[in-house]
UniProtKB/TrEMBL annotation:
<keyword id="KW-0396">Initiation factor</keyword>
<dbReference type="InterPro" id="IPR003890">
    <property type="entry name" value="MIF4G-like_typ-3"/>
</dbReference>
<dbReference type="GO" id="GO:0016281">
    <property type="term" value="C:eukaryotic translation initiation factor 4F complex"/>
</dbReference>
<dbReference type="Pfam" id="PF02847">
    <property type="entry name" value="MA3"/>
</dbReference>
<comment type="similarity">
    <text>Belongs to the eukaryotic initiation factor 4G family.</text>
</comment>
<protein>
    <recommendedName>
        <fullName>MI domain-containing protein</fullName>
    </recommendedName>
</protein>
<dbReference type="InterPro" id="IPR003891">
    <property type="entry name" value="Initiation_fac_eIF4g_MI"/>
</dbReference>
<feature type="domain" description="MI">
    <location>
        <begin position="338"/>
        <end position="466"/>
    </location>
</feature>
<dbReference type="GO" id="GO:0003743">
    <property type="term" value="F:translation initiation factor activity"/>
</dbReference>
<dbReference type="GO" id="GO:0003729">
    <property type="term" value="F:mRNA binding"/>
</dbReference>
<dbReference type="InterPro" id="IPR016024">
    <property type="entry name" value="ARM-type_fold"/>
</dbReference>
<dbReference type="Pfam" id="PF02854">
    <property type="entry name" value="MIF4G"/>
</dbReference>
<keyword id="KW-0648">Protein biosynthesis</keyword>
Length: 527
């Protein structure tokens, strides 16, 4: 009888503690935190395992629908961990594992729910619960309650196998976890940067996958943007102007000067002083604007190409994370047609985004997945140079020049690879310049970038240009390259470094002398 009475008292104390916990959690906020935590410690039987389990369960329920208070609940868990020791932490981790299993079970049983409204409500509850718990885990990591190894284990579990598409609940949960503690996790000495790269490369693939809900895809992009912004949350966008406010259209032209004046706007005395002087030439390629009939097909094609690029980055990131490195063997190889498609795809993306590190990642994956790696490098370099001529844009020429330089400094490309790719096109400038008048200047900008990076020698300018027969094109190519190098203060640009009198000699009495030509470019010191 005495034993039964003691058990009844213990049960009564446990039930009373659970009611007290529920009351405290309902009132918990930043302002009431200290007082209510003290009350919780004093009134609740926190040595009872069932009470601790009930507390953790209630906290998990709270974070599912009160995202703004997740930090407060994490502070509470940190206090309890400090007071109760490792036993509380074990209960917390065990409960989080149970949430994974419950989430999977809930999704599997949704098909049996006949009513659509009930089914949607249950799906929403399951998603809110797992996402809330992941936010809490992230906050707990920031407070050193759980370790980096647990966060990595959870992240891997949420992502699943490479090339698989996790459920939307898990993707959103991973985004919530990374948003909560991604910065601290990446800064942790226990985190390999390659592993973080792998997580976000996978998120990039999911952000382009049509198998993923639109809302979830945007969450992936938000998480990617947060990391690219050094984990600093983007400031709120400025409010829209009122109708009564005057808008100064002259301060923000609808069309950029680069589009209106590809050779540079004519502006008084400086009209012809730039390195890209010359009359405007109509682009040789036709401009095709999307129509209602073609828009859907164009969007599908863009998504398909974006996903291919993202998958290539993810595969390379996974190889790096597994220790294979950029040159490690990949799980599959590309044939010639796939190589050509992926080269064109990553060049299009690079021209749009301008991210050299991502472009190098794609290049590394392409090289790793082909049997003849040198041939692949040659194809990549040639495609980049051809792209400059085809697009005929000074901005693109600058970007491609930087990428080719990076291919030498960081991508394992040899000088001979770059010289062959650029030299082949430069040697045909007499013919190319007829269709693309800007080609000599554009290729000169590319050459200047690789020379400045010491990827090729300075005399490559005259060596490559010696195949140009027309002295006008020859001078145009060489002159722009030298002006570009002077602007970046290239140390090798000295008198006598190049035989310009032999290279740029024109017809006496018809063309300017070499000294006069150099003087017109403000390069008299090289005469």
């Amino acid at each position: 009888a005495a034993g039964g009475s003691a058990a009844a008292v213990k049960t009564l104390d446990a039930e009373k503690s659970k009611r007290a916990i529920k009351s405290v959690l309902n009132k918990l906020s930043r302002g009431t935190f200290d007082k209510l935590v003290e009350q919780l410690m004093a009134e609740c039987a926190l040595t009872d395992v069932s009470v601790i389990e009930a507390l953790v369960s209630m906290v998990f329920d709270k974070v599912a629908y009160e995202a703004q208070y997740v930090g407060v609940y994490a502070d509470l868990c940190a206090k309890l961990h400090e007071a109760l020791g490792s036993g509380f932490k074990k209960t917390l981790i065990s409960a989080a594992q149970d949430e994974f299993e419950n989430s999977t079970l809930a999704r599997e049983t949704l098909g049996a729910v006949a009513d659509r409204g009930d089914r949607d409500a249950q799906a929403k509850r399951a998603r809110s619960k797992i996402v809330g718990v992941m936010r809490l885990v992230g906050e707990l990591f920031k407070r050193s309650v759980v370790g980096a190894s647990l966060v990595h284990a959870i992240s891997s579990e949420l992502l699943g196998e490479p090339r698989s598409v996790p459920c939307d609940d898990y993707i959103e949960a991973l985004c919530a976890l990374m948003t909560a503690c991604g910065g601290e996790l990446e800064a942790s000495p226990k985190t390999n940067k390659a592993v973080m790269d792998m997580y976000f490369a996978r998120l990039n693939v999911l952000a382009e996958s049509m198998e993923v809900d639109t809302r979830t895809r945007f969450m992936c992009r938000d998480a990617i943007e947060l990391r690219s912004n050094a984990w600093v949350v983007r400031a709120n966008k400025p409010a829209a102007k009122k109708a009564s406010e005057e808008i100064d259209f002259t301060s923000s032209p609808a069309v950029s000067d680069e589009i209106l004046f590809p050779e540079g706007p004519a502006n008084g005395a400086n009209a012809r002083s730039g390195s890209l002087q010359g009359p405007y030439e109509k682009p040789a390629h036709a401009v095709v604007l999307p129509t209602a009939a073609t828009r859907s097909a164009l969007e599908d094609d863009m998504r398909r190409n974006a996903k291919l690029r993202a998958e290539a980055k993810a595969d390379a990131a996974i190889d790096a994370a597994l220790g294979a490195g950029a040159g490690g063997a990949s799980s599959s190889s590309y044939d010639a047609e796939q190589v050509e498609q992926k080269i064109n795809s990553f060049i299009d993306e690079y021209a749009t985004v301008g991210d050299i590190s991502e472009a190098l990642l794609c290049i590394a994956d392409l090289i790793a997945r082909t049997p003849d790696k040198e041939e692949t490098k040659n194809a990549i370099a040639k495609a980049l140079v051809d792209y400059v001529v085809n697009v005929s844009s000074a901005k693109i020429a600058d970007a491609i020049g930087k990428l080719l330089a990076a291919c030498f400094t960081s991508g394992g490309f040899e000088t001979s690879t770059l010289e062959m790719a650029i030299g082949d096109v430069v040697s045909m400038l007499d013919d190319v310049a007829i269709d693309v008048p800007m080609a000599p200047k554009l290729l000169a900008k590319v050459v200047a970038k690789v020379v400045a990076a010491n990827a090729v020698a300075l005399d490559f300018i005259t060596a490559a240009g010696s195949g140009i027969e027309d002295v006008m094109y020859r001078r145009e190519f060489c002159g722009v390259a030298l002006v570009e190098l002077k602007e970046v203060k290239y140390t090798g640009l000295k008198p006598g470094a190049l035989d310009l009198h032999g290279f740029a000699a024109g017809e006496p009495g018809v063309d300017d002398t070499v000294s006069e030509w150099l003087g017109s470019l403000s390069l008299s010191e090289l005469a």
